[in-house]
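User: I would dearly like some help making sense of a protein record. I have put the entry right below:
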Amino acid sequence: MGTAPLVLRLPSTALPVAFNELYERFADLVYRAALRVTGSPSDAEDALQTVFLRLWNREDLAQTAQAPEAYFRRAAVNAAVDVLRRRSRRAERPPEDGLTAPASSPILKEQLRRAIAQLPARDAELFTLRYIEGISNTELAAIFGMDRITIGTRLHRIRQVLQESLGE
């Protein structure tokens, strides 16, 4: 995948063609990113649909982007976090029975997903891009328009909030 700038301000007759090209180029990336965040194929598909529906409803298909891959990865994370928030509002909390789960257990992963869903949107996005997508602090600084040290500090604070939320 290239990192050529995307500027798509097209006449309405060209929209379906450009949209299809974007879908073909970035759908797998969006799906994989959303799947890593949600842990559920059906939720990842919902996030994929959300990303491309949001894109379709814009006057221009994508913002002028120096890094279209970063744009779609960020959009996928945002949509996946939205899905998690909707899911956590609908889900009933499991009863507290005092049992602890191993660090790799599905229960702990679900608890982490719920805790991420409770974070402010920008914090959830930052945490997910760093620790689930593996984006470096330097890359995050460029994406968010912040200093690398500020990114590190925010990530530290986010981890503290999540640890408190998970009771560690």
Remarks:
- Helices lie at 15-38, 41-56, 68-90, 106-118, 121-132, 137-144, 148-166.
- The domain at 15-92+102-166 is CATH 1.20.140.160 (Butyryl-CoA Dehydrogenase, subunit A; domain 3).
- The radius of gyration is 17 Å.
